[in-house]
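Slide 14.
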Amino acid sequence: MIAEVSVSSPRSPSSVALVRSQHSSRAVVLPGVLGQPRSNVSCSMMREATEGDREGIAELVTVRIEALRRRGVYGVMPDPSALDLIGAHDKGCPMAWVLCEDDQVLGCAAVLGCTAGSGWSKAQRRQSAWTLSGLYTHPDLPDPSVSQWMTDWFRGHAARQGVRWLRGTVFSDRLQQRLVRLGWEPVASGRAHTYLLQYRTWPPLSASPAWLQVPPGEP
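Slide 15: predicted structure.
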């Protein structure tokens, strides 16, 4: 299940963070942590979640769900979540991930090494695919495209492992519509506002928003 990202105030040009994947040499410019201006550029990264992240992930998920419910979005509890899968691996790949800056968790997601959940056909289950579950970003992040950047990161990470599809299930009409606008392909729908979606994996940053710029000198 993929959680909805919030729309907040425009980012300040002086508030940026350098995000570098530990699995990629590329760096991108992201808004600063929770919109706070800073005098220098600090380092954020996508990495495997550890026990030390448990409290931060729990707080992030709670804050995000409360923000969604205030907006009338329900049925967003992920199963499983990054909290459930800290330290777990599937076919050698970590299953719990965080986007963090220093000790602060700004985003989290769980990745299952198969097509999980009901409604998928036998043929689809045989395809090379990962399930993206419980993707959350902090509601105070100053740009709604952070969750899209995380999705693109997972697309690239999956592609490097030879995986063809990212898949997920959502339980909100509005969230399903938003994800389709962001490039997810609708596959099927079921009872109780349940939707199956998939996204073709691709080299990282290939479909990222224009403001995700690779700084000069980076490969």
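Speaker note: Confidence is low (pLDDT under 50) at residues 2-42, 205-219.
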